[in-house]
Amino acid sequence: MLESRELGVGIGWRPEIDITVERLPGVDFVEVVAENLNPDHLPESVVLLRERGLPVLPHAVSLSVGGAEPVDRKRVEHLARLADVLDAPLASDHVCFVRAGGLDSGHLMPVPRTREALDVLVANVRTVQEILNVPFALENIAALLEWPDAELTEAQFLGELTERTGCLLLVDVANMYANARNLNHDPLKLLDDLPLERVAYVHVAGGEEHDGVYHDTHTHPVLPEVLDLLAELVKRTKPPGVLLERDGDYPTDTDLAAELRAIRERI
């Protein structure tokens, strides 16, 4: 298990709900989208939260560590600088790629679960770790497709990644639920097989089904089934922290507080 301090229950800080996050009860830590912040000009709200002693964790979306091309060092240096300025206990991104051949996908794309792809991912993660001054965690993503000819299960792939790099896992149970719905994955088996001792913290988020496809929107309430998966994870290990992600169509402060309470009740 992660040796740093316990994080508790958190929420994703967004500029649209900055005052809400400041006054919500039961917020122990926050996460910020790294690409949206300038380390030299932090938002006043983020500074206030740091002054209160809340951990602020930078979460990147653009490093593309699963891409065939080497990572962009400037993007990693931005993340490292932000983590240093925030005095963050760790930084994170996703097991995915977002660029190839000079094109940006606009989405988090799944990595083929092959030995060759794992070697590339490991090399890129090691590059990131050389630049960061804090531990690096990687999140499992929600995917609408899988590459053919997989040589490893998701748990094997992530397990070998942690073994070879020493990275941590940011376990997103909402993404697990999405993959169960759309790809017929077994989330309970995944929880059984993952190296849960490497969990840095956990993501929870809402979604909605459209035309038979479940979308991890981050703009809808958290489903009971996602909270049930969180409870299943907690049966297997006590995560250092659990964070609610909300990226749009923001509800009332009362509704957000209720979702945070529901999370706390399950941990």
UniProtKB/TrEMBL annotation:
Highest taxon of source: Bacteria
Keyword Glycosyltransferase: no
UniProt entry keywords in alphabetical sequence: Endonuclease, Hydrolase, Nuclease
GO molecular function, one term: endonuclease activity
Matching InterPro entries: MbnB/TglH/ChrH, Xyl_isomerase-like_sf
Protein name per its UniProtKB record: Endonuclease
